Amino acid sequence: MASKLLRAVVLGPPGSGKGTVCERIARSFGLQHLSSGQFLRKNLRGGGGDSRVGGFGSIAAFLPLLTAPFSCGAHTGFPRTLGQAEALDRICELDLVISLNIPFETLKDRLSARWVHPASGRVYNMDFNPPHVQGVDDLTGEPLVQSEDDRPEAVAARLRKYKDAAKPVIELYKSRGILHSFSGTETNKIWPYVYTLLSSKIPPLLSDEEN
């Protein structure tokens, strides 16, 4: 585990690869990856938590996670609105914010091809990360489903909603000088630049080639 305290947020529209980037960050730098999606699934299955965290509502149930002690942290999926960013400010000072900029057409194609295992949250993409057997989860054999939000007719509305909500958040972090934006159509091509940025902040545990 790295010794320096680092708190980072990865921002990006639906389908931009935030989860993949954070998983690589966690492996390469010994960071703790906090995902609002995983938090929601765990707590909602147990009857707790706040179902509005994953959308654009209350974050009271989620904020305590960020106060837990850890040497380093990388978080994805939060904050999504200016109000959430301001609430986060009151308990946690971010060291850097990574923003993933992916073309609209790429996002539309990714989301429309995405299927999920509801119980675990495992995500498959029928174009570049399909399940071993079509329509079922690799580990459990249970059926995969496509979210209503991932159907082609709903994708454009989701992306517009994200853009409108995220713009002031991105401007806030840009004004503080902690925003680092990366553009591209493939996570594998964006990742080396993210790795180089973080390597200038904390020592990596794995080389770029090992991840």
UniProtKB/TrEMBL annotation:
Record Gene3D superfamilies: P-loop containing nucleotide triphosphate hydrolases
CDD domains: ADK (cd01428)
Keyword Nucleotide-binding attached: yes
GO MF, one annotated term: ATP binding
Keywords: Kinase, Nucleotide-binding, Transferase
A Pfam family reported for this protein in Swiss-Prot or TrEMBL: ADK
Coiled-coil intervals: none
Boundaries of every Adenylate kinase active site lid domain copy: 114-149
Family: Belongs to the adenylate kinase family.
PANTHER family xrefs: NUCLEOTIDE KINASE (PTHR23359)
Name of the protein this chain belongs to: KAD4 kinase
